[in-house]
């Protein structure tokens, strides 16, 4: 699954960038959990350096970030194959750093953890979609929603939020609004939310979308598309020049080359019609 929750986005002022040298991230990289005994190691893990403990919330992050090492076994993630080369090891370390509950552990402190930390934000594909990055460092407060950073001349955009003491940006929609005030205070960036999503916690958000859109006020390259599905006020962000659509739980990559609409996460109609 590509994105776990309805898309949330914020328009950050031109010049704001992702700071991968954030002290908060460095602290987390230094303090990565290592084994204090095998009492928490799931028996479904294969033997070896990396493993998943019993605190896993089955959010899927490690499985799509490092599919050669992690898979779902008995309702939680597990290491089914230890990394066999530097590329797979890096992917496993990136998944370890991104795990929202720090459920991925190593038997000994990884000496290359800071090198893995320095790879964030991770370019999705520098050739086909330049300027689009996966931020990593998922937060348990948003059930591990994936955060993406869009670098553009008209102003940078953060899609979803990242962990507090993390990369940059704010949060904007009902399912994932934890700490959004902290990010807005730091970056002075206007937050965007649909009026149907406003709660007491998001009443002071700077921009509230009204009606059914679409909205193009962020520039000719961005469309905000009203897609009620997972929530009544869900909105997708379409990066038109690169043909990239940031969706949410209502519409996701199936992993088999086609889009999937999961009725479990869709309680409102119109999603497919809106994004068609």
TrEMBL record:
<dbReference type="Pfam" id="PF00753">
    <property type="entry name" value="Lactamase_B"/>
</dbReference>
<dbReference type="InterPro" id="IPR001279">
    <property type="entry name" value="Metallo-B-lactamas"/>
</dbReference>
<protein>
    <recommendedName>
        <fullName>Metallo-beta-lactamase domain-containing protein</fullName>
    </recommendedName>
</protein>
<dbReference type="Pfam" id="PF13370">
    <property type="entry name" value="Fer4_13"/>
</dbReference>
<dbReference type="InterPro" id="IPR036866">
    <property type="entry name" value="RibonucZ/Hydroxyglut_hydro"/>
</dbReference>
<feature type="domain" description="Metallo-beta-lactamase">
    <location>
        <begin position="144"/>
        <end position="275"/>
    </location>
</feature>
